[in-house]
Design goal:
Maf protein, Molybdenum Cofactor Biosythetic Enzyme, Chain A, globular
């Protein structure tokens, strides 16, 4: 199996509360290609430190991918570190500078000498075009290792890696491997681990469990001497996971929960609308990250204030006075009116207390009411989504989408 080492570059990853999400995402893409990630490290912007990490990575991996440090500022020093580690001079590429100038001119951005730094590369490096930003990537192949440097901005890095990763990795023998990813909703990581622990001892099976807001992701890899055997082993594990968690588990296979819901809706020729209070548009934002969501998502409302709950959703002020904005009657009314107002087949209504303030003994922080309306009636759920403000909102989005998923597959509540 081919091996990869990942290096995230940026002092901000070490000095501030900013997580490295790039290498985690890249690891998942490598795993899908049958490439094992053997190292993930974050290093400062110092060229000597980057070069040291790069030399170590080359010793252990067939592919080394660096992210960050390719921009025009003084702390963007990845190209210098590459030259240092590989003992190659930095060279200015006049043709690349012409292309960069044209990009800036096309979007009416001023050009400066600082921007020209992005036209320098270590001798022998190939450019990787950045179709979103100005910092092009670099690819160098000394000896038997492929070294790739990409920008650290995820919206730039991800499409570049998606387009070229299979080329950088080369031929990978996947004939003896099969993999699958599951998501389990409504269970904690420890509980999932306990219920699946016996599967860890199955021959040729490797199980990885990751926690996410409101759900647990399980990545299963099966390895055998033949592809057919690997697939058979995986099917046994797949059946065990789906049986033990029934409607709480679903197969991911590179689709988000919103994407799975979208596919179900599109397959039925149905549409969705959402009225949000505590999530304040986060549900709609998650839905519209799915390509083609305009086919099945009609739109919706953010009704954060009681005034808008009354004016847009038609909620009686007396209901708000008697039950409060965070209540079952309000969630039901939101779901019903947004469905009708947006002419959708399904309507989701969400209201809750995201915190950190606003809670009480009767209505604690994290309390959420979710309602789902269709032509067949309205369903309602009351739940507690623990965590800080961000986690409460994200877990609420996952909860709401999962309730709809269950309805669409006939898995009850």
């Amino acid at each position: 199996m081919k091996r990869a080492a990942l290096i995230a570059i940026g002092s901000e990853l070490l000095r501030f509360d900013r997580p490295d999400t790039n290498t985690v995402w890249i690891s998942g893409r490598l795993d899908r290609l049958g490439v094992e990630t053997v190292s993930r490290v974050s290093v400062s912007d110092e060229p000597v430190v980057i070069a040291s990490a790069l030399r170590a990575a080359v010793e252990m991996a067939d592919v080394v991918i660096l992210t960050g440090g390719l921009g025009p500022t003084d702390d963007d020093r990845t190209r210098q570190a590459l030259a240092l580690a590989l003992d190659r001079p930095l060279e200015r590429d006049p043709a690349r500078e012409v292309l960069l100038r044209a990009r800036f001119s096309a979007i009416d951005l001023p050009w400066s000498d600082r921007q020209a730094r992005q036209a320098w590369r270590p001798a022998g490096a190939r450019w990787i075009e950045n179709k979103v930003g100005s910092a092009d990537g670099l690819c160098i192949e000394p000896a038997d290792t492929t070294i790739v440097a990409l920008p650290g901005v995820p919206s730039e890095m991800r499409p570049m890696l998606t387009e070229h990763l299979s080329t950088w990795v080369g031929d990978v023998d996947k004939s003896t491997m099969a993999r699958s990813t599951f998501r389990i909703f409504g269970h904690g990581e420890a509980g999932v681990d306990e219920r699946l622990s016996d599967l860890y001892d199955e021959p040729g099976i490797d199980v990885t469990i990751l926690s996410a807001p409101g759900e647990v992701e399980i990545a299963v890899r099966s390895v055998a001497d033949r592809r057919e055997t690997a697939e058979t082993q995986l099917e046994v594990v797949r059946g065990a996971v789906l049986t033990r968690f029934t409607g709480d588990a679903y197969v991911d296979e590179d689709r988000s929960l919103a994407g799975i819901v979208g596919d179900l809706l599109a397959g039925r020729g149905e549409t969705l609308a959402a009225a949000e209070s505590c999530t304040s548009g986060l549900l709609a934002a998650e839905i519209t990250t799915v390509p083609g969501s305009s086919v099945w998502f009609r739109g919706g409302w953010v009704v954060y204030s009681d005034e808008l709950k009354t004016r847009l959703a038609g909620i009686d002020p007396e209901v708000l006075e008697q039950h409060g904005a965070v209540s079952e009657p309000v969630a039901r009314r939101l779901a019903e009116t947004v469905r009708e107002g947006c002419a959708a087949d399904w309507g989701i209504g969400v209201t809750g207390i995201a915190g950190p303030g606003g809670g009480s003994q009767d209505k604690p922080v994290g309390l959420v009411h979710v309602a789902l309306a269709s032509a067949r009636g309205i369903s309602h759920w009351q739940t507690i989504r623990p965590g800080d403000r961000d986690w409460v909102r994200r877990r609420t989005v996952s909860f709401a989408l999962d309730r709809l998923r269950r309805k669409l597959i006939g898995a009850g509540s």
